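Q: Got one fold?
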Amino acid sequence: MSLPRLFIDTLNLTMQIPVQERQAVDAWLQESSRFGEWPLNQSNARTGTYGSRYDLTAPNGKIVKIEVNPRNPSNAYMRLDYSPEKIGIEGATTLAETLAGCLGPNYREYFYQGIATRLDATFDLRRIPLRDLWIIDSRTGFKSALIRGKTLDIETIYCGYSTSQTKCYRQLCIYDKLKERQRAGRQSPTSTRWVRFEYRYSKGDYLLAEVYARLNSPYGHFSVRRYAPIPDHMDAKQSRLLFDACRLHGEANVLALTEQTDRERIRLAIKAFPRARFFDHRIAIWAQLRERIHELLP
């Protein structure tokens, strides 16, 4: 199996622009959107904490939201909200040219010294359904949630990272991406099974240039088992039921409900379910984050 590609699906970035430069930035954005020299339009959408919003259209039609003029003077002057993966390389080039136009030659410094207020680091797994993956969380004191769909099959697994002692919010979410798109009425480029592993970091205060060094790998406390028949221990129907019981309730709870005379046999059967080989490469998968950040501006 080839190494899954990590990518940034969502990026919210706030940038502090010097007070003496803000008027020029605002004027550039207004003029560029008014006279059509750039693929930039001032939006009528309500911007909440910002007074103005502009929509930058990438060559493929995807949008980068640019917000300026914060209502609260203590907030960063400019905010970007977009999907680096969806706008593609040409969209990243368009964004870089736009930032160079409104921020001048120091636009890269403003960008990479900006605060990543949300970053979704994601990779996709194809051809293996979510119901064939058993996500094992070795941590204590953290709550996880299993969300069922209309068929009562598991569609989403939320593994929380946030605590009352931390200001930021982190969550590992594993979900059936194909079902999510179908439920939203969106077309999918494939009908192949499609599971997404998504690490969501938000409400934090890390500089974008430092995120890959400051964020610990979200996969360190997890392991993944994959369903496979275990004929040396039990028939296919029994092994399926055992695997489902473990992924829904955990190995310890399954063994606690097993008769003492059968406990060792069931324990050995559980251990026979194979590791998910793709997850053996989790260190290499997470290491790609640095490269993805460096690619944000060409």
